[in-house]
Amino acid sequence: FDVAKRRIKQRALLIAAVILLVFVAITSLIWVGGSDMLAGEISGGELAAFIFYAVMMAGSVATISEVYGELQRAVGATERLLELLAVEAEIPYRAENGEPKADRVSSEAIALHDVSFCYPSRPQVKALDTISLTIREGERIALVGPSGAGKSTVFELLQRFYDPAQGCIEVFGNDTRQLSTMILRQHLAIVPQNPVMFSADVAYNIA
What is the pLDDT of residues 66-94, one digit of tens each? Predict the structure, then answer.
């Protein structure tokens, strides 16, 4: 916000200075050139050419002032982007262990054991309270319930966007906290509720 205020102030001063310089330059050119034309030192065509060149140069200077304003805006945006890039994730993207299917210590594809979780923004409200769930390989299940029941939370924990406060989530008997998040997420497929249509052919969209 402070950078934005400085940018607006600098841009306003720069535009005012450019407009003043342009009008002073053109006025001086017309005054001097008109006097020389009346004295017969230059022709009307030469005066018109000089005025045309002056207008072109004034437009270029005005463009430079616009570019400077955009650069100031970019500085403010870049500051915020660098702050975001410097933030370290609480959950590392990679871990030393391998992919879930490398070590199938259990026939249970997914298992939740007494999982409890609270979102950081609402630490006093439990989104999940000691939930246990077992899904065997090849099974198809559906989680149903009203809004806020914790359906999306289960999938966010499964993808390890968060770690459970209590309990654990296992994939083929492996604790998700001990697995590489990259490999874990490669084994998950999500169909979003709102479909996205790409500007391509039907085959590409289906794929």
Answer: 777 778 778 777 888 888 888 887 777 66
